[in-house]
Design brief:
rod-shaped, five-stranded antiparallel beta sheet, 637 residues
Length: 637
């Protein structure tokens, strides 16, 4: 049975309409994706730029607030350094105990200065200690006031310490101006005391009447409390981290209290990555972006003479928060793109339906005209490409019908000529045959054996000529006439039986067929004629009294591959084209009687039905294998 292949069963997915829909959807999706991607990237860039600008302004305000805390400390020590109490104490100490200008004793000025320092401590909750240190006598303290758990302590002279070796004392004397120390743990008598308290010190030199540095006004501040109080005065909707040049930092998250100060000598948690991105020598402002966050950093100097001393603020915003509008836009873009694709799908389907409807009409018109004697005419209405196709097709059909008409007339004339020629040529041949017999009978007593042999040769040539004419007429009619045998289906075994009925098979020959061939179902004609000639050719040209001929078939999709294998003498490769020509034989006809038309008819039948004939060497060095392809549906020509 013929198998309907994919090419014979068109589906929607292989149709022009499906391709139009697919191309339209792909185009719509590509354009939507391109526009959406470009818009998203641009929107992301604008959002990040605007966010950076907003963070910049806020970071500057926060940084300025922290810088102001340092400025307040500078102002306090400056006011204290130029206060009458400090100046009077210096004059009194220089004069030996009594201020020559006012007559006030040094002890009285010391008591007044302690009161002034306590006043500052009351106003500044972060201050822990204020002192007036003399340069002489190893930097011995001259006045000292401490903040205690219960109030304020005026330290007596017996409690004064020598601070001349402290780094901040040396640095301040060397600079001759206001000096901010690094943040270090508080030290008493040269040793760190418990509990550990990171302390910031600001130092202001005090000069005597001769312009020489007499002493230092020093203010100590609890650094953690200083930052905490500053944070309290700075509202911010973003996470903020304040960092100094030594690496001490404090972080506050929105709506929460600041975290504990992280002192650079004793981090209790891993420092944030942002800490390593900014250094005092870098630009005062930077934007820094990680995979998940956007930072804006502002760094301000805290003392003109101390270029390395700075305070910086970094504001952080999660990218997910910043890009939420961009993500929403991207989501909306995807939804719109899907909507555009869906609408494009519908529009493309409708347009495709309109286009293919007319094409289907043309196809159905053409299919409906198969076997119809009426002339096929396609509708030509319209001005589009389909109408042009119809007009071109109608013109082609008209030309084709004209040529077919001429060809039918020519074929009819040719067939009439062939029939008449065969009939008219056979008549003289019969006369020659009869005349030779009469002549042989009438002159039997006068003819020699050679004469009689010549008469027999003459009649054999007449018989051969009649066979030529029959074969020639049969060859000319191939493909021109079909009868009910061309529509009759038989099995392979039935076909072989019909073939062998027409052949004279010598007793020593075995003709066998494979199971696949025997179970095959095919049309009787013209395969019958093909196998008659192939098998007959193998028998006729065999060089032995015994022989084997095998018939097989292979299913190759939309066609069969038949084979006829014999164990005869074989066919030299140089003759494999010659044997398919008319009247060609490999041996003289005196040795093998034949017209030389059998293989020519095989080739014409096979090629007429779209097949191909091939010859290969047989097995074990003998014989030949004739193979030919044959369509499963031989009526599709």
């Amino acid at each position: 049975m013929g198998v309907v292949t994919g090419s014979h069963a068109p589906s929607f997915f292989r149709s022009l309409r499906a391709k139009l829909v697919a191309v339209t959807c792909l185009l719509a999706l590509t354009i939507s994706a391109a526009i959406g991607s470009i818009s998203y990237i641009r929107m992301q860039s604008v959002v990040l730029s605007n966010a950076a600008d907003g963070l910049a302004g806020e970071a500057r305000l926060v940084a300025a607030k922290f810088a102001e805390s340092y400025s307040v400390m500078r102002r306090d020590v400056t006011l204290l350094a130029i206060s009458p109490e400090v100046e009077g104490l210096v004059r009194g100490l220089v004069a030996g105990g009594i201020d020559p200008q006012t007559g006030t004793t040094a002890a009285q000025w010391r008591d007044a200065l302690e009161g002034e320092m306590i006043s500052f401590l009351k106003q500044r909750p972060a201050y822990t200690q204020m002192r007036f240190i003399g340069v002489a006598d190893g930097g011995r303290e001259l006045v000292r006031v401490n903040r205690t758990a219960t109030g304020f302590e005026r330290v007596p002279a017996s409690g004064y310490q020598r601070k001349g070796e402290e780094p901040y004392v040396k640095a301040s004397v060397a600079s001759g101006g206001v000096y901010f120390s690094e943040v270090t743990y508080n030290r008493e008598y040269g040793k760190v005391v418990l509990p550990l308290q990171p302390t910031l010190r600001i130092v202001m030199p005090v000069r005597d009447a001769a312009g020489q540095i007499f002493g230092l006004v020093v203010s100590n501040a609890d650094y953690e409390q200083l930052l905490t109080l500053t944070f309290a005065a700075v509202p911010s909707a973003h996470e903020a981290t304040v960092i100094n040049s030594a690496g001490d930092y404090m972080r506050r998250q929105p709506g929460k209290k600041p975290d504990a100060l992280q002192f650079h000598e004793n981090y209790t948690q891993p420092p944030p990555a942002i800490l390593g991105q900014f250094h005092p020598e870098e630009n005062s402002e930077q934007v820094y972006r990680t995979d998940s966050d956007l930072y804006y950093f502002v760094r301000l100097g805290i003392a003109p003479a101390q270029t390395a001393a700075s305070i910086g603020v970094a504001l952080r915003v999660p990218l997910s928060q910043l890009l939420a509008p961009a993500y929403a836009f991207l989501r909306d873009t995807i939804l719109v793109s899907l909507l555009v694709v869906a609408v494009s799908l519908i529009i493309a389907y409708v347009i495709g339906l309109a286009i293919t409807r007319r094409l289907r009409t043309l196809t159905e018109t053409i299919k409906g005209a198969e076997g119809d004697d009426d002339r096929l005419v396609l509708p030509e209405d319209g001005v589009d490409e389909v109408a042009e196709l119809s007009r071109a097709f109608n013109g082609l059909l008209s030309e084709r019908e004209h040529l077919i008409g001429k060809l039918l007339i020519s074929n009819a004339e040719l067939e009439e000529f062939a029939f008449a020629a065969a009939h008219d040529l056979k008549a003289p041949l019969r006369v020659i045959d009869n005349a030779s017999k009469w002549l042989e009978e009438e002159m039997s007593d006068r003819l020699t054996e050679d004469n009689i042999e010549d008469m027999h040769l003459l009649r054999s040539r007449v018989t051969r000529m009649e066979d030529y004419l029959d074969k020639l007429l049969e060859f000319a009619r191939i493909g021109r006439r079909e009868n009910e045998l061309f529509r009759q289906k038989v099995t392979g075994s039935q076909l072989l039986h019909e073939v062998l009925e027409l052949l004279t098979v010598p007793g020593g020959f075995q003709i066998t067929a494979s199971t696949a061939f025997n179970e095959l179902t095919v049309y009787l004609m013209p395969l019958h004629q093909v196998f008659v000639n192939l098998i007959g050719n193998s028998i006729k040209h065999h060089d032995r009294a015994e022989g084997n001929i095998e018939i097989d078939v292979e299913d190759q999709g939309d066609h069969y591959l038949f084979s006829v294998t014999d164990d005869g003498p074989g066919i030299p490769s140089k003759y494999r084209e010659t044997i398919f020509k008319m009247f060609q034989t490999l041996k003289p006809r005196d040795q093998i009687e034949g017209s030389g038309m059998g293989l020519a008819m095989v080739k014409k039948y096979v090629e007429l039905y779209g097949g191909q004939v091939m010859i290969d060497d047989g097995l074990l060095g003998r014989g030949a294998i004739f193979r030919f392809r044959w369509p499963k549906n031989q009526f599709r020509r």
